């Protein structure tokens, strides 16, 4: 027989479940606004790109725009057809085969426009091999603010006022990490085939062009400028119309949705299979009233089960042996080989590149960009004492400028980096 106390609990739980169902099926409720940065071409949410897609259809031939939902390998042509590869999203995922296909596509005389907050590291290295001398690819830099402004540098394309971009969640302004191309990546006028700045704001380059083979790469670091939220006014439309001036309207357009991933994704490992449909199974279930009622009833029963099951004792969880990380053994073997061959400076430069990438991704600080308060910023964000950071940066600069490195200096530099990895927060 059910006790009085348990009966009250069951009654309250059923009333709560009924209230949730009533709220979910209330016809007069306001629709929820999706504040995620999806950059989906069919989405009218603030950070969708439905407006940008409509403008692209007006500039290009609408039938020539092909949305790619699978790998570009074997899809992008390798001959000149005045085509445009288009990507708009938080971050780009491409394996080596996809990167090679894109490079061949551009080298043949086509155009690639990539608007994202970051660029695959290996793709950046491939592009930067032909750029300025005595410079090193370090990726994009970041600054934090709730607002950002951008425009164009060439006189014919200059706007009456810069485009104002803002980041909002649930209607409120929020701080945001805005990406830009640091001055250390921009070549001087005397250096041929350099990364040419095209647009941005004072102190921040958001748009640049890089010749590659017979074509061009256009690197755009502010995908938020192409979202619905930024294009609702006339200034946003003026910005996009000037952006299209850099593309060839006569050729086909390949809009890549497959390579879009969140900025926080780990690009070193393959991603799971992508969905080939705009609608998920759950979206279909919720669109059918009988299935939707069954779904919410299942959720309510699950909550009731958890409520009455929570007091029971959980069985003992077996202890499993942790997986071995063989990649670390491989890295150590390569390091020992380089050390035995007295390639001390090459080994140190490799450690520097890994350290630079780690600091940029974790603390949004670029070691390649000159900054008088760099040591203080890195110390406060990582929790490492300032004297240790200053010593590490001194070794970092000395190794960059010196053509040789002794084994003792390499060992000391390794100890400094090891201490940083072990004790940073």
Automatic annotation (TrEMBL):
The keyword Transmembrane applies. Residues 42-243 form the DUF4350 domain. InterPro entries: DUF4350. Keywords: Membrane, Transmembrane, Transmembrane helix. It comes from the Bacteria. The chain crosses the membrane at residues 291-308. This is DUF4350 domain-containing protein. It comes from Phaeodactylibacter luteus.
């Amino acid at each position: 027989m059910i006790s009085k106390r348990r009966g009250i609990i069951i009654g309250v739980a059923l009333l709560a479940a009924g209230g949730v169902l009533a709220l979910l099926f209330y016809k007069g409720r306001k629709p929820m606004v999706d504040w995620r940065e999806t950059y989906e071409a069919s989405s009218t949410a603030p950070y969708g790109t439905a407006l940008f897609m409509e403008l692209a259809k007006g500039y290009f031939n609408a039938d020539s725009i092909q949305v790619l939902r699978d790998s570009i390998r074997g899809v992008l042509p390798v001959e000149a057809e005045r085509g445009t590869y288009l990507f708009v999203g938080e971050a780009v995922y491409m394996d080596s085969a996809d990167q090679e296909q894109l490079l061949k596509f551009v080298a043949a005389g086509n155009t690639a426009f990539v608007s994202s907050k970051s660029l695959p590291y290996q793709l950046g290295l491939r592009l930067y091999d032909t750029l300025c001398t005595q410079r090193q690819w370090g990726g994009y830099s970041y600054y934090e603010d709730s607002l950002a402004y951008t425009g164009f540098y060439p006189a014919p394309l200059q706007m009456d006022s810069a485009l104002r971009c803002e980041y909002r969640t649930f209607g409120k302004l929020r701080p945001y990490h805005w990406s830009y191309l640091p001055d250390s990546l921009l070549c001087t006028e005397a250096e041929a085939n350099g990364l040419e700045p095209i647009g941005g704001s004072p102190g921040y380059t958001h748009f640049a062009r890089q010749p590659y083979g017979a074509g061009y790469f256009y690197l755009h670091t502010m995908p938020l400028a192409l979202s619905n939220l930024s294009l609702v006014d006339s200034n946003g439309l003026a910005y996009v119309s000037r952006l299209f001036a850099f593309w060839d309207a006569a050729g086909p357009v390949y809009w890549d949705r497959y390579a879009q991933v969140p900025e926080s994704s780990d690009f070193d490992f393959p991603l799971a299979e992508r969905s080939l449909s705009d609608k998920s199974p759950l979206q279909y279930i919720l669109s059918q009233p009988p299935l939707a009622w069954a779904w919410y009833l299942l959720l309510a029963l699950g909550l009731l089960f958890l409520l009455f099951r929570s007091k029971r004792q959980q069985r003992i969880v077996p202890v499993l042996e942790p997986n071995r990380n063989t990649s670390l053994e491989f890295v150590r073997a390569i390091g020992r080989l380089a050390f035995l061959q007295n390639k001390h400076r090459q080994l140190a430069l490799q450690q520097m590149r890994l350290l630079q990438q780690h600091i940029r991704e974790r603390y949004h600080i670029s070691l390649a960009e000159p900054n008088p308060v760099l040591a203080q910023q890195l110390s406060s964000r990582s929790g490492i004492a300032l004297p240790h950071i200053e010593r590490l940066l001194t070794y970092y600069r000395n190794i960059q400028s010196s053509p040789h490195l002794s084994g003792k200096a390499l060992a000391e530099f390794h100890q400094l980096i090891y201490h940083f990895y072990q004790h940073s927060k």
